[in-house]
Design goal:
Elements lengths: L7 H7 L4 H15 L2 H15 L9 H11 L10 H20 L3 H8 L1 H13 L7 H8 L3 E4 L2 E7 L4 H7 L9 E6 L9 H18 L7 E6 L15 H6 L3 E3 L8 H8 L14 H11 L7 E6 L1
Helix pairs in contact: 1-2, 3-5, 4-8, 5-8, 12-13
Length: 304
């Protein structure tokens, strides 16, 4: 199910796998192909991953079980086993994209999140591996697409979101198509122009490639929508301009302090007193926490 030793490096580079991980993945390939147990686990994980590819399930429990299966890999493979699973699933993902007419460039940029995820793992732990492989299930199942600066995930309106949309004048019902908007790391500044371009690309993309799924709203669940950021950032900052796009609803009451620390500094376990103050966002996140404040995830939506 895996490319041979000569072809594997090219596949990994297409997936933006960091160069320092390529030789390791090629060298450990034999641990998967020659170990009957590892090979069987690889087949089972790939089968589970690509089963009903393209279908929007919203199956968080299934993603959790998938992550548990990955953890059954031999210790010698370390955190790399998930990468082999995604590489082995690649033909099914590409076939689905081709069936939908997805441009090759969108496919490449979307699946490059494997490399971004591995870079994040090394940034956090100082070693190779795949961080949060459950997240990548959406990419390789044809649910999520990178369109310019932002990512858009095919999903459905939830029980809590439907009343919010109806209050705004939309006849929304739970289960109808909806997009979830995500802001990936390692992708440059979140400028208004880049966001405008992404939203325009997404409107054309989903109208053309998923015409049977009429998307009327896009949601975003992120600490980036916390209104407290207005107390720390300049009014013309990219983050505040991003906030202005959304109608915010459904505030969380539980603090989510680890979220901005994870995304801004790469490690949610860093001591608050030691957080750097090199940029305006670093100063905002750290100073607010050091003053005894908390950060919250906010849930926003915008008409699509």
């Amino acid at each position: 199910m895996l490319p041979d030793v000569d072809d594997l490096p090219e596949v990994l580079l297409d997936l933006a796998v960091p160069h320092e991980d390529v030789n390791v993945l090629v060298g450990r390939r034999a641990l998967v192909t020659r170990d009957a147990g590892a090979g069987r686990l690889l087949e089972e994980c790939v089968e589970e991953l690509v089963r009903d590819v393209g279908v929007v399930t919203g199956d968080a429990e299934g993603a959790r079980r998938f992550g548990e299966r990955l953890a059954e890999a031999p210790e010698a493979l370390g955190g790399y086993f998930a990468a082999y699973v995604f590489v082995a699933a690649l033909p099914w993902t590409r076939a689905y994209h081709e069936e939908r007419g997805v441009p090759a460039e969108v496919t490449r940029h979307t699946l490059a999140d494997l490399g971004r995820n591995m870079a994040s793992h090394r940034r956090r732990y100082g070693s190779g591996g795949v961080r949060a492989p459950q997240w990548l299930v959406h990419h390789f199942r044809g649910e999520l697409y990178q369109l310019g600066r932002l990512q858009f995930q095919r999903t459905t309106v939830g029980e809590r979101t439907a009343p919010v949309l109806r209050a705004a004048g939309m006849d929304a019902v739970p289960g109808e198509p909806c997009l979830a908007l995500h802001v990936p790391d390692f992708r440059g500044p979140l400028t208004p122009a880049a966001c405008d371009r992404s939203l325009a690309l997404a409107q054309r993309f989903f109208r053309r490639h998923f015409p049977e799924e009429p998307y009327r709203a896009a949601t975003c669940h992120s600490w980036l929508l916390d209104p407290q950021l207005k107390d720390h950032l300049d009014a013309d900052s990219n983050i505040l301009r991003f906030q202005e796009r959304f109608r915010v609803a459904l505030p969380d009451t539980e603090p989510a302090d680890e979220e901005p620390v994870r995304f801004v500094f790469g490690n949610p376990s860093l001591p608050v007193d030691d957080l750097p103050r090199r940029t305006s966002v670093e100063r905002a996140v750290g100073d607010h926490l050091r003053a005894g404040g908390h950060w919250y995830v906010r849930h926003g939506w915008l008409p699509f």
